[in-house]
Each structure stands twice: as C-alpha cells, then as structure tokens.
Amino acid sequence: MSGELKSLESVLDKYIPEDELREVKRILYGKKLGKLSLPASAEALATERDFELAGYVFEAKPEEMRHPRLVNIGLIQNQIVLPTTAPILQQREALCQRISSMIEVAAQCDVNIVCLQEAWTMPFVFCTREKQPWCEFAESAEDGPTIKLMQELAKKYNMVIVCPILERDELHGDILANTAVVISNSGKVMGKSRKNHIPRTGDFNESTYYMEGDTGHRVFDTQFGKIAINICYGRHHPQNWMMYGINGAEIVFNPSATIGALSEPMWAIEARNAAIANSYFTCAINRVGTEQFPNEFTSGDGQPAHKDFGNFYGSSYVAAPDGSRTPGLSRTKDGLLVSRVDLNLCRQVKDKWDFRVSSLKY
C-alpha cells in the first residue's frame, strides 16, 4: 500500500475540509506559497512524457538597497527506464534520453539551476555487494560520457546542472566515489563534491564500493548563486549542513536514493530543518520506483535474502530559511519541481532570527 500512495498532500486534500485544510497546511508547510505560472507548452510536454510538473514561488520582502535575486531551481526525480538485467550501455543511454527530455521541459520553464538525483545514470546497485557488472557504470567526473552530454545541455539551455554520478578517478588509483559534478551554464565543469558520509545500515552498505569523500564542504559560486551539494546520507548530520552554511552556500542540494521503510518519517524534517538552522534554501531529491536485481542479497538487519530494496518514495521538495516549503512531488511518479526563489530571503531571515553561522574565530 505504501508504494501506491501518491503523496501525503493527496490524502490531505481528499479527506480534510477546505477551511481546515488551509490551517493544516500552514502548520505543516509554513506560509502559503504562490503557484508558479508554467508555460502551457511545458505542461503539455510533461503530460506527453508522463511525468509530474509542479511550480511554486518563494517571495522575499522588497528592499531599498538590493534588487531581488530571483533564481529558478529545478529538481528532477525519476525511476530507472530499463530493467537491471539489460546491457549496461543500454541502461545508461535510456536514462540519458529520459533525463534529457525532462531537462528540455525545465529549460522551457526558465530553470537556472537543475539538480538530478543521486547516481541518476544507473540503478542504485550499491547494496548488492556485487562488483560486476555494476562498476562498469562508473565514469570520469571531468570528461565521462554523461558529463559531456550534460555540458552540451548546460550550454544549450544556459543552465547550471548538478550531475551526480558514480565516479571513477583514473588519476588517483582508479578509485570509485559517489560524486556530484557541477557544470556551469557555459558548459564548463566547475568542480565536484563527493559524498562525505557513507551508510552502513540495513541494505545500505555502500563502503563496498567507495569510502567517504575527500572534497570537504565545497561551495560553487555560479552565475545564479552560491550552491553546495550534500549527497544523500549527509543529510542526517547537522554539522554537515552547518559547514556548507559557514562556507557561504545560499542553496544546498541533497540528491538522494532512500526507501520508505528506512527513512521516510525523517525525510520531510531534515532538509527543512537545515534550511531554518542555516538560513539558506535546501532542495531534497529522491528517486522513485522499485529496482529488482537478478541475484538475491542479504542485509545487515537480519531479514531474509531479497532482490530489491523496497520503494524509493520520491517526495522531492524545496525548503526556505523561513521554514516554508513546497509540497512534495509524487511518491510514485517521475517529476520535475520548479521553484522560483529570492535569495534575498537568506539575509532577511538571518536579520530576523539571528540564526547565524560564522567562520570567524573569537
């Protein structure tokens, strides 16, 4: 049943009377957000290509000394296209085609920065503990085939793209890393950020493939704002979020792959709390679907051997430093969430609440 539930919001809308629903949503989501007007052509393409498209607006108060700093953020969640038994190259190419078609719609919605889900180029194989054929999905973070494709799209659409991949670092002993590559709107690779907390719980024992990253808490100064990437398991660590704030981030993306049985009660809390505590925008992205593998694997929690992790529950959302947040995307369907944010809100909230982080030494 949990895998079939479209979203928490759909249940609230169905069963709570309209006058009470407004108050319930205020308590759950903070101030009401305006709907972002999206082009009819984009909505038609989303329908044709069978993914959800939603848009919201985060406003800040007008200032005398600063112009609004408006940025359109896009989050993409998706399921795999081909079964895990298909040839590796075909699996990756099918995902590249799917994501390229969704990025095209993001461009029609004037998205400035788009972030894809964790290891989007592949099934989430990291708990099978099998090295082959899964390690063949790994590629260079500088000039791998997926990176080259995203460079072309970034330049074509004048869009910063955050591209999480399984990285193979041939210059440093052929190590593997769970990496997010930041590609500027000019098409150049700005750099990379590696996952710095590795889960070793239940099915998720990813240290079979890679260890903690060595890139620290990098912040990338893009044309559209200062961004950082806190990959998946890092969201459970408040100090991790804090360090991105200390280093000046205005938007922190959390590309993830997590299942309902493990983490769903925490999902709506962690990224939102980080936005409040650190006075920046947070973007939580999770994949959808259930991925079946050819061979059974066992977990660290004593359950019988099985061939899937369970349901990835989507529910991607954006949260603001004032505690407001968008509704989540579907728990079961591919989707693109577009949010127009005013980065001036970061300083305004700091001035109001004095929730400040500082790198100064006293």
TrEMBL record:
One of its GO terms (molecular function) is beta-ureidopropionase activity. CDD domains: ML_beta-AS. PROSITE patterns: CN_HYDROLASE (PS50263). It catalyses: 3-(carbamoylamino)-2-methylpropanoate + H2O + 2 H(+) = (R)-3-amino-2-methylpropanoate + NH4(+) + CO2; 3-(carbamoylamino)propanoate + H2O + 2 H(+) = beta-alanine + NH4(+) + CO2. It comes from the Eukaryota. Keywords: Hydrolase. Pathway: Amino-acid biosynthesis; beta-alanine biosynthesis. GO terms for biological process: beta-alanine biosynthetic process via 3-ureidopropionate. It is an enzyme of class 3 (hydrolase). Residues 71-343 form the CN hydrolase domain. Its EC number is 3.5.1.6. Belongs to the carbon-nitrogen hydrolase superfamily. BUP family. This is Beta-ureidopropionase. It comes from Ridgeia piscesae.
